[in-house]
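Researcher: Before we compare anything, I want clean individual predictions. No alignment, no superposition, just each chain on its own. First chain goes here; please echo the sequence and then give the structure tokens.
Model: Echoing the first chain and its structure:
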Amino acid sequence: MSIKIALFVLINCFLLPLSIQAEEKIKIGFLLKTMQEDRYQHDKRFFEERAKSLDVEVIFNSASNDHQFQLKQFSELLVQGCQVIVLQPVDTEKAEEMVREAHARGIKVIGYDSLLRNGPLDVMVMQDSWEVGRQQGKELEKWLKDKYGEVRGKIALIMGEPNDNNAMTMSLGVCETVGKDSTGMCKKIKEKICHDKEQCKVNEDGVGTKNPNLELVFAEEHKGWSADKAADTTEEVLKKYPDIDAFLCNNSGLARGVIKTLRAYDRLDISKIFIAGSEADKANVEYINKGEQNLDICKKIRPLAETAVKIAVELAKNPLKEVNETFLKQFVKSADCPECSFKNVKNDYMDVPTIITPIVPITKENVHTHIDDGCAYISK
């Protein structure tokens, strides 16, 4: 009888911590690189709303585009009881040190929106940044055909933060459209990030082959994704290339900087100079509606944020679960995101299991469409 009692006590000693652990509220860290652009208010809102609906606690912070500040924030999360951290890195080249530190403590890390390079990552949730650049290029081709009857001209590439993976991949998507690159930027990006032949559709010089008369004449990176710096860059472009045909920008804020200078120089005419942005901030969508910007790309925020929450909860509940292709494909099917897809994405260290969420080009033709997913729109 005493043996049975001893066994009962022993078994319950093991089971009690497990039951307490099972009842413990899930806690997720969520770090954004900035709140500078309009879209990030939606990232935070959709993420926290979905987490609340699942009874999950979120510890949120943003880093004002400061890598050192983000390192400090990440270290604080490691001691606050988070089972999973969702991270949008400020510096995609240096973020791997944070992930390694988390893994050493048994904490999983989900990449969000910007893919870190040269390091480990459990899962990635993002839009296809290559496709963002390609969509900008496709709309530019249509515009040039209307203007000249053929695809030819000179374009300027207004890039975001140096070494930011999204900035580089969006830009390489644009490079697929051009046939000449007098800046050398396309080749530089290709050599840095282009290790997937299926994804990178450029030649040895980093450009495409279908538009030999379309030339990239200017390309500049902008620290902090600064609209003011983009405005200064635009002034430089106008002085060097007064016959410039297009400004393709890595985000909406940079496009606003371009528009500010074009207006100041009395050159703001979208029938003469094509302007494209990305992220569809409210001000830019209003520009499109007023005929002051040609294109912006809506990166659908609701499916991005909500999918990140759901996969974080899944990993927190099942910390020993192997995150592989089979698991993520099943997850995508059950995640209520019919437009989402799965693929492995190379980051120079590993094939990162990645969930891809949708994007939508916004032009004058569809600017009145209500897209309830964090993209700005104009009410009918």
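Researcher: Okay. Second chain, same rules.
Model: Second chain and its structure:
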Amino acid sequence: MNRSMMMGLVTGGLLGATVGMYAVSNMSPKDRKKAMRRTRKMLSKAVMMNVL
């Protein structure tokens, strides 16, 4: 992986995290719980795919 691609991935990740934090801060507590549950499911699936 070259340097510019790596920088693009890091920048994209930071932008995504910032937008995600902004969205979560504007959610109601009920919606926030639902979103966290969905995120946890996706992360656990991703981890399982990487393990196998």
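Researcher: What stands out in the second chain?
Model: The mean pLDDT is 87. Additionally, The radius of gyration is 14 Å.
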